[in-house]
Amino acid sequence: MKSSSSELELDRPNIEDYLPSDSFTLPPSPTRLLHLRDLLDISPTLTEAAGAIIDDSFTRCFKSNPPEPWNWNIYLFPMWCLGVVIRYGILFPIRVIVLTIGWIIFLSSYFSVHFLLKGQEKLRKNLERSLVELICSFFVASWTGVVKYHGPRPSIRPKQVFVANHTSMIDFIILEQMTAFAVIMQKHPGWVGLLQSTILESVGCIWFNRTEAKDREIVARKLREHVEGADNNPLLIFPEGTCVNNHYSVMFKKGAFELGSTVCPIAIKYNKIFVDAFWNSRKQSFTKHLLQLMTSWAVVCDVWYLEPQNLKPGETPIEFAERVRNIISTRAGLKMVPWDGYLKYSRPSPKHREQKQKSFAESVLRRLEQK
Amino acid sequence: MGNTSSMLTQYDIEEVQEHCNHTFSLQEIASLYQRFCQLDRNGGGFISAEEFLSVPEFAVNPLSQRLFRMVDGLNFKEFVAFLSAFSSRATLQQKVEFIFKVYDLDGNGKVAFNDMLDVLRDLTGQFISEQQREQVLTHVLEEAGYKKDSFLGLADFMKILGNSGLKMEVEVPVD
């Protein structure tokens, strides 16, 4: 079997390791002989197929839940209309102005710091760090982010990785506001990509392209180097690898758990009272997502910095990842599903089907031998 | 969610109910319609095999390749009719007919030895040798009073599966 200890990979974990092995077998009567009807009766497999068509846990992870309609009431409706006017007519322009001011301050000071303080690396780094935190605070202010942080604020020290559940790119902004994390992220197109490659690079962020296998190696190498460095910004990884709707958590990639560092879990839970913070990247661009947030009353969320975890003796990275996922899911009230988020982009491996075939084949053979 | 209006009129629903022999209730059909729109990502009014494959739990099913041929390009009415065999209101006859159709892919009303072998191959993959598969199948066929070259019709399926306490039900979530 694969020994993944030496080579760190951001590659997908084996789904098989996560799934319970209760696939369909023949009816549980080991003493009975095999009859024709046992072979012809394919109803368990068909039922499972139809069940998946009608409802499946994977699709549910990425479903944006529409808000409950509460305003269709003769008394509430005028109030709601008034709210719309305020949100779009007053709040939104103010927020745009705030954000613009933020950008002007940020860009002017960032570039002066970046070019004028060439000699003093340490000072420059610290200033750049606080400037990134500043612009993130402006972003949070632009959606009137009501964020409650629980637990100690992360500190800079080597050999530790922060992992958090992922709902939208705004998770990153919310966390960045408190601490300038270096984050591992998918490379985005458009203006977000431009920001990534110019400014965020200075806080040590690492980008990759999900579909490029070569990128994985480079990222893995950079990861190791980053974790070892004493003065680097704390590393933040979203091990789900994709945005989930904040009701479920999909499997964690094992990359973050193979570094041999302490893993500090962060749980983020959004309150959907005003707006759904889930970014469905298939349906909206990030700009549209931001506009949606900026025209809502507020973004309310809780952030918990949880107890740091270490690999226990005898524990595999996958088990470790599952343990941490469990801690985060419990805190944020998420349901755990045994699916790899990358299945949004690719098909499940045939291994998974083979396991089902194997258990069926074994039960056929077992009963045949009893003759 | 999405591009299609999720409101069906009572007439629409009754028409669909007619089409699936009233195996689903009004709410169930409304709920299935939401699911249909969710699966029909490009909003074309039908679900392609590719869109069915995007459900991993379906894609890993050993019979998915075979079921694709039955489900590819279904519109909503056909989608409901396809699923109606899994309703708790469907008769045993309907359920057995569905299973028969899975075996009888060419639709000639007869299931030959090879059809059964194909399904068994889908179910067991590489974990039983081809030779052993044929052996097993021949054995159970003969034990049940058939020969290797006999064709099984729907009536035979009814006889074989009819009294085995067939459990083939899927609940449609209704909110």
Automatic annotation (TrEMBL), chain A:
Residues covered by the Phospholipid/glycerol acyltransferase domain: 160-271
Molecular function per GO: glycerol-3-phosphate O-acyltransferase activity
Subcellular location as annotated: Membrane
Sorted UniProt keywords: Acyltransferase, Lipid biosynthesis, Lipid metabolism, Membrane, Phospholipid biosynthesis, Phospholipid metabolism, Transferase, Transmembrane, Transmembrane helix
Region of interest: Disordered: 348-371
Biased amino acid composition, Basic and acidic residues: 356-371
Pathway participation: Lipid metabolism
InterPro entries per UniProt: LPCAT1-like (IPR045252), Plipid/glycerol_acylTrfase (IPR002123)
One Gene Ontology cellular component: membrane
Transmembrane segments: 72-90, 96-117, 129-149
GO biological process terms held by the UniProt record: phospholipid biosynthetic process; triglyceride biosynthetic process
Key word Protein biosynthesis present: no
Primary site of residence: membrane
Family under the similarity heading: Belongs to the 1-acyl-sn-glycerol-3-phosphate acyltransferase family.
PANTHER family: GLYCEROL-3-PHOSPHATE ACYLTRANSFERASE 4, ISOFORM D-RELATED, PHOSPHOLIPID ACYLTRANSFERASE
Entry protein name: Phospholipid/glycerol acyltransferase domain-containing protein
TrEMBL record, chain B:
Record Gene3D superfamilies: EF-hand (1.10.238.10)
Recorded superkingdom: Eukaryota
Gene Ontology molecular functions: calcium ion binding
InterPro entries attached to this UniProt entry: EF-hand-dom_pair, EF_Hand_1_Ca_BS, EF_hand_dom
Protein name stated in the entry: Uncharacterized protein
